[in-house]
């Protein structure tokens, strides 16, 4: 995913089974952590299995990369997303 140095990007996600099928009949509290920049919400309660937050590359320069780690309270790092600053 790419973002401009002065912009922001919406991080949309959904709960899925190990086979990649969406889970829409239950919700969870999802924890997000970024190695750089700023996440508007770092704990998001899903609705219908989906959730979102906003990432801003505050303090980052062009060509910097931030890793956003996604997981649960007792199962951290279940998924990662790389955001490139352009």
Structure commentary:
The protein is an all-beta fold. It is 0% helix and 47% strand. It is built from no helices and 8 strands. It has a 5-stranded mixed sheet, with no helix packed on it. Strands 2-6-4 form a 3-stranded antiparallel sheet, with no helix packed on it. A hairpin with a 7-residue loop joins strand 7 (65-71) and strand 8. It is elongated, with a radius of gyration of 13 Å. The mean pLDDT is 95.
Note the topology:
Blueprint: E1 2-3, E2 9-14, E3 29-34, E4 38-39, E5 43-45, E6 50-56, E7 65-71, E8 79-85
Parallel strand pairs: 1-8
Antiparallel strand pairs: 2-6, 3-5, 3-7, 4-6, 7-8
Jot down its keywords.
three-stranded antiparallel beta sheet, 86 residues, elongated, mainly beta
What is the mean pLDDT?
95
- What is the number of beta strands? 8
Widest β-sheet, arrangement of strands = 1-8-7-3-5
Shape: elongated
The stretches of 5 or more residues where confidence is low (pLDDT under 50) are none
From the N-terminal CA to the C-terminal CA, the straight-line distance is: 10 Å
* Biggest sheet character: 5 strands, mixed
Order of helices and strands: EEEEEEEE
- SS field, number of helical segments: 0
| SS strand fraction | over 45%
Based on helices, strands and strand pairing, what is the structural class? mainly beta
* Approximate helicity band: under 10%
Radius of gyration: 13 Å
What's the short version?
The protein is elongated and about 40 Å long. It has no helices and eight strands.
